[in-house]
Write a structure and sequence with these properties.
Layout lengths: L20 H8 L1 H15 L9 H23 L6 H16 L5 H24 L4 H48 L7 H10 L7 E7 L18 E3 L6 E5 L10 H6 L5 E3 L3 E2 L3 H16 L8 E3 L4 H6 L3 H11 L8 H16 L4 H8 L3 H15 L6 H16 L1 H5 L3
Parallel strand pairs: 4-6
Antiparallel strand pairs: 1-3, 1-4, 1-5, 2-3
């Protein structure tokens, strides 16, 4: 045991002498005081008021005894460090974090317990006829003790929280990789990983593909929706949103603001085990955004552009369709080709209504009739075949979005 300060010595940093014999007297009363402090903590701090069972009661009791022991040790030797007791509170702080609890309850217990211990031990000092300045010095020692153990608990809590956060992120990344990997995931494997990642498995999800950015600072990353699984290191970055049609509903402009202006494509809503399909469509839509075939900025929902996505899901076949359906336009000049293609599409979409076509194109109806005679000469009976008309609509619609196609015709 450390050597007490000489009789009548003054603890460093305190203004009144505390008789070292008081330490031994208080140590003899430690168990009795611990009983009262424990009861006071259980009465004043709701989190500690539950029925004391086994391990929980032992932890509370050990914490009270350790703090009181450190308090008495400071009386005996104010220069003592109490590292072993601080280590105990470090572990108590870690335990609170690992159990997913706030540190508030433990800190409240320390304040309540420290104040009550000082009152009890101060009462003993008064009964011994010690000067009131000694009682005040005991109060300062009590607050010093509370401060030391509280610091140790906070350090343990912070260390465990940091470790927990890193571990949770690793588990959620593994879960996201499983959901978005090749082939449908086994539901049992999803449930197992989700449990470890503290992620409630939703019935449906949607995946957001984000435009890549050269700025990798986390402060500029999008704000993830509640419960979202995010991987900003993948290419393209991706975000899995649970229950997108319910509690995770995309908030329009609010969602765009959360993405900090970064262009993004939202895949279709699918069952959780089919998340990889939502990702594939979102990535495809993001590619079409980059080419200008879908809006380049903002947030594009695949559900709003299914026909475009379907048509561009097999680009070589789409090229074949356009080349065959629009081959008759190869016989006219480039200038005529563009005007005739525009007129033909408007005519097909308007149900062959000449005035409607003229209004759409802002030209005279006679101009439309002239162009239609040219088209009838070029295409012949094809214009009256329902199947061929559908091919022409598809070919002309995609060619119109892809102007290079028309301009590159021979």
């Amino acid at each position: 045991m450390v050597t007490p300060v000489p009789q009548g010595g003054t603890p460093e940093g305190f203004g009144a002498p505390v008789p070292p014999d008081l330490a031994e007297l208080l140590r003899a009363q430690l168990e009795e005081v611990a009983d009262e402090v424990e009861e006071e903590v259980r009465r004043e701090v709701p989190e500690y008021a539950r029925p004391a069972d086994g391990t929980y009661r032992e932890h509370l009791r050990a914490g009270v005894v350790q703090a009181l022991t450190l308090f008495v040790d400071h009386i005996a030797d104010p220069r003592g460090r109490g590292d072993a007791i601080a280590a105990t509170y470090y572990e108590l702080g870690r335990g609170e974090a690992l159990e997913g609890r706030s540190l508030d309850a433990l800190q409240s217990a320390l304040r309540v317990g420290g104040l009550h211990a000082w009152r009890l031990m101060g009462r003993t000092a008064m009964e011994l006829g010690l000067d009131s300045t000694v009682v005040a010095a005991l109060g300062e020692l009590a607050f010093r003790t509370v401060h030391e153990v509280a610091q140790a608990a906070a350090a343990g809590y912070s260390e465990a929280r940091a470790h927990n956060t890193d571990e949770l992120e690793r588990r959620r990344r593994r879960l996201l990789d499983l959901l978005l990997g090749e082939g449908p995931p086994v539901p049992a494997a999803v449930q197992d990983l989700a449990h470890g990642a503290r992620w409630p498995v939703p019935r449906q999800v949607a995946v957001v593909a984000l435009a890549a950015s050269s700025d990798q600072r986390e402060v500029d990353w999008p704000l993830a929706a509640a419960g979202a699984l995010v991987d900003m290191d993948s290419r393209p970055p991706r975000m899995l949103i649970p229950d997108p049609e319910g509690s995770g509903r995309f908030g329009g402009r609010a969602f765009g603001l959360a993405l900090r202006g970064r262009p993004a494509a939202i895949g279709p809503t699918v069952p959780v085990t089919e998340a990889a399909q939502s990702l594939r469509w979102a990535v495809r839509a993001l590619g079409l955004m980059g080419r200008g075939l879908l809006p380049r900025q903002g947030v594009v929902r695949c559900a709003d552009h299914l026909s475009t996505l379907l048509l561009h899901s097999d680009e070589p076949m789409l090229d074949q369709l356009r080349a065959r359906a629009l081959a008759p336009l190869d016989t006219v000049s480039e200038g005529q080709r563009e005007r005739l293609a525009e007129t033909l599409l408007a005519w097909l979409l308007s149900g062959s209504n000449v005035p409607d076509v003229a209004a759409r194109l802002h030209v005279h109806p006679q101009t439309v009739r002239y162009r239609l005679r040219q088209l009838d000469k070029i295409f012949g009976e094809v214009l009256h075949d329902p199947g061929a008309r559908l091919d022409l609509i598809l070919a002309l619609t995609t060619a119109q979005k892809n102007e290079e196609f028309l301009n590159s015709r021979p």
